TrEMBL record:
PANTHER family: SPERMATOGENESIS-ASSOCIATED PROTEIN 20. This is Thioredoxin domain-containing protein. Residues 2-155 form the Spermatogenesis-associated protein 20-like TRX domain. Gene3D superfamilies: 1.50.10.10, Glutaredoxin. GO terms for biological process: carbohydrate metabolic process. It comes from the Bacteria. InterPro entries: 6-hairpin_glycosidase_sf, 6hp_glycosidase-like_sf, Ssp411, Ssp411-like_TRX, Thioredoxin-like_sf.
Amino acid sequence: MNELQYESSPYLLQHAQNPIHWKAWNDQTLATAKAENKLMIISIGYSACHWCHVMEHESFEDTEVANIMNPGFISVKVDREERPDVDAIYMKAVQLMTSHGGWPLNVVCLPDGRPVWGGTYFKKENWIDILTQLQNLYQTNPAKMLEYAEKLHEGISFLGIVNHAQANPEEQDPARIKILLEKWSKSFDWDFGGYARAPKFMMPNNFIFLQRFGYQTSSKDLLDFVDLTLTKMAHGGLFDVLGGGFSRYSVDMRWHVPHFEKMLYDNGQLVSLYAQAYKRTQNPLYKDVIEKTLAFVERELLNPEGGFYAALDADSLNAKQQLEEGAYYVWQKEQLQQLLQDDFEVFSTLFNINDFGYWEHDNYVLIQSQSLESIAEQFGLTVTALSDKKLQWEQLLFREQQKRTKPRLDDKSLTSWNAIMLKGYTEAYNALGSASFLERALQNASFIIEKLWSEDGYLWHSYKNGQSSIVGFLEDYAFTIDAFISLYQATLDETFLYHAKQLTDYCFDHFYDETQQFFLFKAKNTTALIAEHYEIEDNVIPSSNSVMANNLYTLGILFHNSHYEKTALQMLNHVIPNIDYGSAFSNWMNLWMNLSTDNKELAVCGADAIAGIKAVQQQYLPHVVLAGSTSPSKIPFLQNRFDEKDTLFYICENRNCQLPVRELTTALDELAIK
């Protein structure tokens, strides 16, 4: 029997009608595999994954495949977003076996869960052949399979061991980052931004670091590269210029044709990146991206309780009522000519309804390759007139797009991704000053506290249909702590800072490994997997350990907690000798920059502190740890700084503070990179 009908995950429910006797990942399923001495098929994916849908249609909906899988295997479906711990372990296994990974991730394991074979997408015929061979081998020569499983398990376990090399004082010098950046920059795409490869991922945490490093070292070339990347992404098909929001990645080097799924975590991080870039440049394009992206999130991903849903699918129904990747977003020339009439020529030049913008099957993905100034000059228009036309076209096509069947929604709410989006809203408020952004951030914080934080002190990982489920992973704590620190620094509501400290202390009690001197991804008191997992390297989302280390650094300063600061620097010093390629360690390098002499702390204390901190937050100051209070505070960094008669700015460096100043302009001048 297919047991997925009893699950709440949208991905698992997509497979609930398959003829495969799917089971969910749980203790009972694992016990069944051992009791029946059957190989397990562990198939991992997520609801917005296009190739997961393809393999489902070709193989998992097929009775011939079911007749092989059902009698011979225990088949387990896993939503990687619900169980990132399971996904991480088996992704390591597949990468060891094949040197690559991706989704759908399909692994065949011994009854005890140790993998013996794995890969990603397979056509039906290949899938049948592979399963038949593995089943025959297990029946005729199980010892050979057991021997391979033992060797592979050793490799997986070895990957979980942290290299305890310790950076010496010379290696710790932030000046070494320039040397690493020289190597890193060789992979930059100086024509279209991002990296000179395809597929092309946005990697927001990379560009948050690169922007900071460029700013603190006054590197015009590096800042120009960041701006090139952000502009090309905003003008590419990757960004939905009509409805807002970014797709997951581009299949080409021009940011033109995306994989069309829209993920909450991408959009939260990108709002933060564009907000920081807007502070630095005041570029109206960045403001437009922020506002459109948050409008998309409000419209498509907001639940009635103030939480955010996980994702929109890549596939949607086309005009023939068939599921097709990107159908909701693409346009055909005849459609556009009919809708735009006399404006089509200008529109088609701006958005490349030509060979440059063509995708496939008579479909075009809108992409802008020329500036508005250039297009306006070509057609004898003013930039203002063209901007007005562009807005009218976008509104017209958006209304037309709304008549189409929308992509499927993954309506679970994940704690870590909600926290990423919460920080995005907070950063957008800091940059643009919109009260509605702060209101949404506060509502989401309440949702996390009320629905995803248990009375016993731990966080839940997922929420759907009024129910919280799955005990939280390190990522849930790390990103929630980060978001609460940011929300405190925007509002000066100390409740959020104390929440951040409470969750940090919980992490030390339940996740910290004294031997490895890093935090486990999965809490120590939960059911063990076949190997431990320490998330160290940054990826599309920064690693949970790098986020925790940055959190500890900030909280250590604000609470004068030497244990926090020592742990953060100890973690960093273990990582520094392993940094070879900057992209995989950019959030660690952000912490490394905190050791720079440019870094400062600022306390704003007094009756008008909120106005003062709001003005400071509008500036791009990545090298400054902010705090403040409108009343006497017990936070150690703020103690004895409140003055009932005046609002004062205290500028500090390594806790050594100058005499306070009263004028914002004076404070900003002192904080500026000299």
